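Hi there, hope your week has been kind to you so far. Would you mind checking whether the tokens look sensible for this chain? I owe you a coffee for this, so here goes:
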Amino acid sequence: MLDRAFIKRNVASLSLFHDLAESELDAVARACRPVAFADGARIVRQGDAGDDFFIIKAGKVRFAMSFDDGGGGEEEDIGELVQGQFFGEGALLTDKPRRASAYASSKCELWALSASDFAAAFDAHANANEDGSGGGGLRAVRARLRADFARRRHARERGDARDLKLDQLRKVRSLGEGSFGPVTLVRRQSLSGEEGEEGEGGDEEGAVFALRALDKELVVASEAEDRVVTERALLVRLNHPCLCNLHHTFQDRASVFMLVDLADGGDLRALVRDRGRHGLRRAWAAYFLASAVLALEYLHSRGVVHRDVRPKSLRLTARGAVKLARFGVAKKLRADVDGGRAFTLCGTPAYAAPEIYKCAGHGLAADWWSFGVCVHELLCGYVPFGGATPPDVFRTLLTFEHCYPSVAFPAAIQHDDGAARLLLALLQPDPLYRLGALRGRAGAVKAHPFFAGFPWKALTDGVMAPPFVPDAAAPGDDAVGTAAAAAEEEGRADAAAASAEVLGNGASSYLVKYQSSTEFAWAKHF
């Protein structure tokens, strides 16, 4: 007969269940069933529906994966777990297919917990505790599990990646071309012990990332060395779930590489374009914009101004979460240098704040203007300040500044008082009085009536279900869009276009000269 107390003690020791109430631990322990496998026996098969969560009581479990698209090719070992560890916890939340096969490395004894038994255990627990004692039933437990998955996955990918070597990354598929080289979806080949990934059989696959390659010759030909080095120095100090974080950098003789968060669900500009010129549903827009607020709140708390906030810089993950990318013109502001202001003319014309155009000095408030333009575009389907050239855009800005605050917004905005008031507060020509720059900073934006009732805590904890989940990454779409992939070079309209022009004018001999005459001293930072 099973020793329920022994199971309960082991369940309680797992980080996955560390915040369950005593009565909930009893319910989980009662729902576990013993299973045994002979040496070499297959426990789960890659591609099968995820039905059971397993805790290893004795023995070892080996994991193997086929990297073919159909999963039917030869399997390769990706890691091993031992007594006291667990795998397959994603089955408690979803029935998505297993991403790897699991085999008994020796005679194994496991405790198995099916998703149906898990749900039934908490239904019975809820009925037995009508007074509401305990952890709040199945929904609350699953919410805690999702939050725990998100936190642990983010910490795992951030921490484990620091010890990676380039040859430990396996190419899965191409994600497109950046300005200085290809962007590739890669998978780490080793297994990360106890950590799991929500909904995808966590322990049964290595973490996935986007790997950006930057050709050293092309970087030099584009005179972008300083910008690339600055971007790297900035990103290594940033880490937030709403950012496309940098995990590691590598280099070989020809290229430097940036390993970043995977966000292969497209960008918000493409989503707005695909849905026509009428904008997104308000609930969708509120979720996307709230994610951007959290990203800016984090950046600004560290004195970083992004300077290229726009829907194209807001990337979607495969789960529908939003990540802010494109840090090519981001800057760390210092109060002891120019009073915490920057003076570079940069960014994307239609989203740049008036103070950037005027070269009068700009600070963190410039990002909130760009955020306001994003609000307009997501709700209406187009930007408020158009023009064929940057001077044309500037003229529309001057007209708007002259009319402010007597501004006639489109019907989609006029019929939404919260949205109209938010836009007036964000598109304030004077940065000193702009929402986000006043007392309360990002907190004032979060407290604005436009976001009334929005579940900020759920979004912050990572337990809020996104309103839109991409079907699949667009073929050839740039998966991360950070820095060199799209950022405008200071003093240029588009670094990518400038690079293409150089290469299009027979620059091969020019590049050969760089290859033979320089050691790429700037690359020592990678």
Notes: The two ends are 57 Å apart (CA to CA). DSSP finds 17 helices and 17 strands in the chain.
